Amino acid sequence: MPVSREDIVAWIEAYAQVVAENSQYLTQLDSAIGDADHGVNMERGFKAVVAKLPSVADKDIGTILKTVGMTLVSTVGGAGGPLYGTFFLQAGAATAGKTELVLADWIAALEAATQGVIMRGKANPGDKTMVDALLPAVDAVKAASEDQRSIGEALEESARAAERGMKDTIPLVARKGRASYLGERSAGHQDPGATSTFLLLDTAARTWATR
After folding, report:
1. How far is CA 46 from the centre of its chain?
2. Which one-letter DSSP state was computed for residue 4?
3. Are 8 and 61 spatial neighbours (Cβ–Cβ below 8 Å)?
4. How far apart are alpha carbons 130 and 124 in whole angstroms?
5. pLDDT tens digits, 126-162
6. Burial of 34 (C-beta count, 10 Å sphere; 0-12/13-18/19+)
7. SS3 string of 190-205?
8. Three-state secondary-structure class, residue 187
C-alpha cells in the first residue's frame, strides 16, 4: 500500500507529539554540547507546523512537505531551523505533485532531503551531526527496497539504522556547530540532532507500519 497524503499529515502530527514528549530530553542532550535549546526550539517549530497543516492537508505531498519546511525555517532557532527546514523543503521538491508515495518515491525524497542537509550544514559522516543518523537510514531503506521489502518493513529497518547511527555519535568528537567548540570534551555525549532525526524516522516507521 502506498503512503497517502493523509499518512504524511499523520506522520507530521505524530512527530510533533513525539517532539513535545521528548523536548526536555533533547534539550538535556543539547545542554551538554550545545545551546541547551534543541528540544524547546523543535517543539515550538512543530507546534507551528501542526497549526499550518489544515490549510494544506488537501494539497499534494510536495506542497505539504514544503510548507512544513518553510514553517520550520521561520520558527525554529539555532541550527535546527535551517537544517530541518532544508530537509522538508528538499523532500517536498522530490515529491512535487504526488498524492501518494511508493517506496521508490520515499527513497528519492529521503535521499534529496539528506543531500540538502549535507549541503546546508557542510557536514560529513563522523562529524557528530544529524547526518550520522540520516546516511545509515538511507542506505538501509535502499537495501530493503532491493530485497523487495514492504514500505513498512523498509521504514523499520531504516529507523533501526538511524538509531545505530545516533548511538554511534556518542564517542565522536564534534566537528560542526556549537559542539565543535568543545573539541575533545564533546566526546561521550549523544548528538541531539541525530537523536531528533532518529525520532523523526522512527515515527514514520511506526505511523506507516502496515504499509
Report:
1. 12
2. E
3. yes
4. 10
5. 989 999 999 999 999 999 999 999 999 999 999 999 9
6. buried
7. CCHHHHHHHHHHHHHH
8. coil
Return the C-alpha cell found at 3. 503512503
Quick one: cell of 29? 542532550
C-alpha cell at 181: 567548540
Instruction: Identify residue 156 by its one-letter amino acid code.
Output: E
The pLDDT value recorded for residue 80 is: 81
Q: Which residue type is seen at 193? A: G
Average pLDDT over residues 98-119: 97
Q: Which H helix or E strand runs over 94?
A: helix 80-94
Place of cell 555525549: 189
Residues contacting residue 98 through CB under 8 Å, at least 6 positions apart: 60, 61, 62, 105
Give ∠ CA 192-198-202 in degrees, rounded to 5. 145
- Kindly state the cell numbers that stand for 59: 494539497
Burial 95-134 (b: 16+ CB within 10 A, else e): beebebbebebbbebbbbbbebbbebbebeeebbbbbbbb
